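Reading a protein record of the kind used here takes only a little practice. To see the layout at work, look at the sequence and tokens printed below.
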Amino acid sequence: MNKALFFTLLFLTSVMNLKAQDYQAEETPINDAFTKLIEDSNDYQGYKVVDYTDLITLKKNTLNFIGILKNEITTQKNSLNQQQEESAKLKADLEETQKQLEDVTAEKDAITFLGMPFSKGSYMALMWGIVAALIIALLFFIFRYKKGHSDTSEARNKLSTTEKEFELYRAKALEKEQRLGRLLQDERNKSSDR
């Protein structure tokens, strides 16, 4: 925006400088014509007497020059107005383009997740937060699985030990029962023998 405005002002300044030099160059013949008219005039009792046709010619040339200057001023005003309108239009276009650029940049930097817009930084933080939560949950479940597996192994070992002890107890109890049964039978046999 500043570059366009700067170049427009630089262009206008250079055009005005060139026109000012043209006016100075054009003023010289009129100035010379007045000087020549005064020098060519005769002196009469402290007054200057000028030739009427030379005076009319100078008047006509001066009016023509003034007309040319008026036309040039009008043309320059129109040109200046047109350039100002164009400059205003370019400024408005530049502002619109900058706004569109900001919108596109914001849209480019935004990511929509679950229907909500996030900046890239927020989106990355959210994603890494989700990943961290999933890793923590995975570690928790692995820990629980290992603990459950070790508890199951321990219970199986205890069950195996208990079954072995029970088998030993059963074997001892059977043996004891058989011994007691024999003793009882022996006692019965002794009682019946008597």
User: Anything to note?
Assistant: The chain has a mean pLDDT of 82.
